[in-house]
Amino acid sequence: MTPARLPDEVRVELERVVRRWQQLPLDHALRAAGPVRALAQALADEVADAEARPRVTLPELGPATLLHQLQVCVYDASRYAAARLHPEERQAGGIRDLAERLAQVRRQIS
Fold it and tell me: What is the rounded average pLDDT of the residues 97-101?
């Protein structure tokens, strides 16, 4: 089974966040974890709400794992947007919004 493909604008922003995060010294990553955790949790909550599932708090597993959690949540949110929305709505709202939210987190952790 091959992993789902992210839309290009989301993939690019996610790669930028990952690259930036990998460059952070540990003390800076610990201080910058808040916005990353908040976005991952928000995406997890949005998908849970949309699928009428109970919300689950993401476990705090440290800065090394936090980026993996964000990546999974981004894939889930992207997959959900692609499955539920018409193509024009994906570009106008969900996918573009997701890319912008990732860009905002990248700016916050810089």
Answer: 92
